[in-house]
Specification:
The structure is a single chain. The protein starts with a helix and ends in a 7-residue tail after the last helix. It is built from ten helices and no strands. It is 70% helix and 0% strand. The chain is an all-alpha fold. The radius of gyration is 19 Å and the shape is elongated.
Length: 200
Amino acid sequence: MTEVAAARRSRITPEREAELYQAVLDLLREVGYDALTMDAVAARTRSSKATLYRQWGGKAQLVVKAIRHIKPGEISEVDTGSLRGDLHALMAREDDCTIERNSALMRGVAMAMHHDPELRHEFREQFIEPEMAEFRHVIQRAVDRGEVRPDCPALEFLLHMMVGGFATRALLDDEPPTQAFLTSYIDAVVLPALGVPPSS
């Protein structure tokens, strides 16, 4: 980011930025990604479109930034001393109501990504790749502790398994994921695949 761009961004306070992100998420839940417009965001937040474009570049960047803003902290900050403890603690950071709301939001965004290359690019760059790096850090700690063998073939599929637990709950069971479901899934599917006893 250039010094000029940084100076422009600094004009928005963290409180104002959080307010804008919340408005974007509210609109996203109300109308979906395709129908969400920068005009609507500007009207909802009493901003000018020029300001929005200057700060975020476009709709895809703004939406992904808003989604990242509601993340409950960095994954690698959770360190309970065991992989099972870490994964359970990660599932406990959001209550069932929040999990349901955010899962529905992410399903809508995932559908939009299929036909919007810009959104897909921004989501990979700003969300998926950082999340994968965070999960790799958690797993590396487990490897360093001797909980997981470094040559375990399931290691590269950890994030796939975690995303699968969220996505397939609604698809197959027609129910939102819950803390109870996700922690049971971790114990029954994820930990055994990694060679970790579920009671560890």
